[in-house]
Amino acid sequence: MAKGWLRALRETPSLRDNVIVVGLVDLDRQTAEALASEFDLSGVAIGTDLPAVLSQTNPDILFDVVVPAARRSVVAAGLAHGCHVLSEKPMAMSLDEARELRVLADRAGKLHAIVQNRRYIAGVRRIRRLIEDGALGRLTGLHCDFFLGPHFGGFREQMANVLLLDMAIHTFDAARFISGKDPLTVYCHEHNPPGSWYRHGAAANAIFEFSDDVVFTYRGSWCAEGAPTSWESAWRITGTQGTILWDGAEKFEANVVIGRDGFFRSIEPVGVPVPENESETHGHASVIESFITAIRVGGRPETDGSDNIKSLAMVFGAIDSARDHRRVTIAA
Q1: For the chain, how many structural domains are there in total?
Q2: Residue 278 is assigned to a structural domain of this protein
Q3: Residue of 201, 233, 231, 228 lying closest to 217 (CA atoms)
Q4: Where does the GFO/IDH/MocA-like oxidoreductase domain lie (predicted)?
Q5: Contact 241, 256 (CB under 8 A)
Q6: Is the pTM of this model over 0.90?
Q7: Contact 185, 328 (CB under 8 A)
């Protein structure tokens, strides 16, 4: 993932002109050195001890691109050294840990935001705009299918709750953003299907109740071979006046009711509007740009921890529900 962040810095003019990388830290020094060489970062500080490199370089920003188990210590170190911190997801390994990081960020007077890069894609922005325009009437439901079979190797295949904790948060966060609603409760069944190459929790089915009587359902598996969906999931979003289907890539189908009579009312297709702001559709680059803009002009970026903790609460609510076989109230 560090390479994805560095590519965004290198290939986005506004970032390339305004962000200077002054240090790289990795537990394996050779990994950091190889990264510096690949991205032509000659002269940057390289080390294996984060506080030492932070003291040496005195940066404004820390980009936290570590495995989830290291999140808390890395973010805390960055805030303690006066850095704004932009983290990979998930925000934390528990809600208590996430709440602690919110307190640390507020005490330091610094921003801590999360790279929810998948809300910064054109499809998500287009659907949100369609809903905000009222084309579907009152929103009633969001329904997502996520079925892929990636063979990562490494830490993911050893994680507990791997689908919910490492991947489903993207879809959960997108559902929150698209709907503009708050998650209230969840009932979830999690399992590890026969043939799974993951240690735990490669599949899950969840039903969320959102505010204003909106329902969000999620069906997902990370060990589903043969008929993959998009990484963004396949969506069906319903309202009182129509439905939109999105394959998670470039295909949209939106229809609204125009008839008043008949067993099935007549419908007609409607166009899906383009994003209101094209600059918000570039994934990692857009997240980083939003973060830097917030630092410069004030306010909080869209994926600030104060907002992202709600998506994390959906994840841990689903995990708790699956473990205890009960409906869980979501509290961020």
Answers
A1: 2
A2: no
A3: 233
A4: 124-244
A5: yes
A6: yes
A7: yes
